[in-house]
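FAQ: What does the model actually see?

It sees only this:
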Amino acid sequence: MTRVAPLSGRAVQDHVALAEIELCGELIIAASAAEERLSLESIDEVLRVTEEPEAGTCRRTPGAWRQPPGR
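And it is asked to produce this:
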């Protein structure tokens, strides 16, 4: 039998996981409202991704970096 630590009165929040869940929810809402598949540009817009012209990388506002497609 596996022992599990009892839950205390404090709630533990993983802010990164909560942000990812929120973004997934936004994508689901956008996809369900669209008549066709979302384009990559539409997905970037929903996720608030902007291109950094100097570095050639993309950035999620505010501050989470990701590699652009094809790199």
